[in-house]
Design brief:
5 helices; about 0% strand; about 75% helix; about 110 residues; mainly alpha
Length: about 110
């Protein structure tokens, strides 16, 4: 259920970086790139290539595509690093809780 919610809401991120991009186009690019990224070896790069090709075919210039790749990539990595830290910090500061922080993975 959360995966469906993520796929349905993530196009808004791409749309905010590429003005004029419609939801349908952003969603199609997102679904195609996610599918390729999960199936093809070296998936992340292949996913970016698919997204770039699709956006180019819809007339989006190279500059906004590059900006979208960089900004969404940076945002994704910041969130991936921040979420586990945000989850562990409250546990670390709760003195009464017996939490073994060493078993938490940051992947």
């Amino acid at each position: 259920l959360l995966t469906l919610l993520n796929q349905a809401t993530y196009p808004s991120v791409t749309m905010s970086v590429i003005p004029g991009l419609r939801y349908r186009e952003a969603l199609l690019a997102r679904l195609a790139s996610t599918s390729i990224s999960n199936v093809v070896p070296g998936g992340g790069a292949a996913g970016v290539a698919v997204t770039s090709t699709m956006l180019s075919s819809w007339g989006v210039p190279g500059g906004p595509i590059a900006r979208s790749v960089v900004l969404t990539g940076v945002a994704n990595n910041v969130v991936r690093l921040a979420m586990p830290i945000a989850a562990v910090l409250p546990l670390a500061f709760l003195g009464s809780a017996q939490v073994d922080i060493s078993c938490v993975s940051l992947s």
